[in-house]
Amino acid sequence: MGIILGNGKRINEAGEQIAAEVLIEDGRIAAIAEQLARDGHEWIDCRGGLISAGFVDVHVHLREPGFEHKETIATGAHAAVKGGFTTIACMPNTRPAIDSVETVRYILDKAREAGKARVIPYGAITVRQLGKELTDFAALKEAGIFALTDDGVGVQSSATMKEAMKRAKELGLSIVAHCEDDDLITPGSALHDGVVAARHGLPGIPSESESIHVGRDILLAEQTGVHYHVCHISAKESVRLVRDGKRAGVNVTCEVTPHHLLLCDEDIPEDLNANWKMNPPLRGREDRAALIAGLKDGTIDIIATDHAPHTAEEKANGIVRAPFGIVGLETAFPLLYTHLVLTGELTLKRLIELLTVKPAAIFGLPYGRLEVGAPADLTVLDLETERTIDPSTFASKGTNTPFAGWVCKGWPTLTMVNGAIVHREAE
Ligand SMILES: NC(=O)N[C@@H](CC(=O)O)C(=O)O
Ligand SMILES: [Zn+2]
User: Fold this and answer.
1) Which residues are catalytic?
2) Tens digit of pLDDT per residue, the chain (427 long)?
3) Which of 12, 30, 284, 411 is most enclosed, with most CB atoms within 10 A?
4) How high is the ipTM of this complex?
5) Residue-wise burial string across 2-37, b where 16 or more C-beta atoms lie within 10 A, e elsewhere
6) Which atom of ligand 1 is nearest to the CA of 310?
7) 307 annotated ligand binder
8) Which ligand is the nearest neighbour of the Cα of 326?
9) Closest CA to 139 of 184, 183, 171
10) Ligand 1: which atom is nearest the Cα of residue 324?
11) 305 Cβ below 6 A of ligand 1
């Protein structure tokens, strides 16, 4: 007995939406056709919704262990499947950091218990993410990490980064980098060093604090041959450096977040609400344009949310003292579909590739494909119904989003991981 996702649509090679039904058996996609014989299988009515491969998000902060008041693996993995994400990679800036085999095992066990999205942990590059001593990459790989990063902080020392890349290359692991040169940032800076910070008389985070690491690391990746991936790219100069690196044949990829694609510093409300504070900051209007251009020309490889939950109390501390970060898992697809696809910036086919097959492919993961034989990680999307983003309905513990009140189409109605239904909207 299998399950049929019936009365749905899919996107064909030409990018058209065509009628489709999908049969799931033994956790895999067993058949895809315009119409399937019911044959006693369980039949689910997709009501004309788009059946897509489940989304893959390589940048998620799950906060457990250590910051369970912000998010737990269970609440974060639930938020993921509500947003159509079936595989999420969790960042190591937990307490303890993901720098030991024990912590990797703890996370994998908790994720299995939660039974929602598939969780693949990153391992920290350096012990406690302090930027000094490298972690035991081989042991972390054996325990099940998916790639290496110190996200949350930049690796300040070029020598440490180079040594990390050499060892990662030997083990076939990717180096994923939060690019931030601490020396170039005045402590307490919260906003991009641009017109808005200037108007408020606040010190700004300059673009070169990001791009200098991007440039440095592309040169080191060229030397070491490692696959190097840039987190949450935000500055136009960083996009240019990645474009040049790719042209020179360096194995460099990068991700952009929905918020950097849709917002710039000039959109931040005058009261400087801290739900607009994240790292890297919303940059200038030209940076946002460069990110969209980079996405269109293939310089930017994928979209990742940088889901970063914090409590409302922490975010009420004012723009300077509040922590950096916004949630993203439950709003990413509706925002991108409504504000990039329906506006004509990107095709739906391309948006879905940026969220599925592309992230899977650059990290060698067997997910993100709507194909017979592939693991049945699927999401069904209602492309018609308009809904308003309401943080009080989030499964995430975090309600810290600048997008509250935005009206979107493209809401996930059903999510399946390995053939099991892990989320279904009430009808
Ligand atoms: N992006 C953020 O603003 N914050 C992240 C850290 C990070 O991704 O750098 C967090 O852990 O809160
Ligand atoms: Zn980061």
Assistant:
1) 306
2) 999 999 999 999 999 999 999 999 999 999 999 999 999 999 999 999 999 999 999 999 999 999 999 999 999 999 999 999 999 999 999 999 999 999 999 999 999 999 999 999 999 999 999 999 999 999 999 999 999 999 999 999 999 999 999 999 999 999 999 999 999 999 999 999 999 999 999 999 999 999 999 999 999 999 999 999 999 999 999 999 999 999 999 999 999 999 999 999 999 999 999 999 999 999 999 999 999 999 999 999 999 999 999 999 999 999 999 999 999 999 999 999 999 999 999 999 999 999 999 999 999 999 999 999 999 999 999 999 999 999 999 999 999 999 999 999 999 999 999 999 999 998 6
3) 411
4) 0.98
5) bbbbbbbbbbeeeeeeeebbbbbeeebbbebeeebe
6) 12
7) no
8) 1
9) 171
10) 3
11) no
- Annotation-wise, does 59 bind a ligand? yes
- Decide whether any atom of ligand 1 lies within 6 Å of the 306 Cβ: yes
How far is the centre of ligand 1, averaged over its atoms, from the C-alpha of 385 (Å)? Answer: 32
Give the number of whichever ligand sits closest to the CA of residue 213. Answer: 2
Distance (Å) from CA 251 to ligand 2 centroid: 20
Q: What are phi and psi of 5, to 5 degrees?
A: -85, 105
For residue 314 and ligand 1, the question of a CB distance below 6 A is answered with no
Query: Is the whole-model pTM more than 0.95?
Result: yes
Q: Which atom of ligand 1 is nearest to the CA of 323?
A: 12
Does the annotation place 85 within a ligand binding site?
no
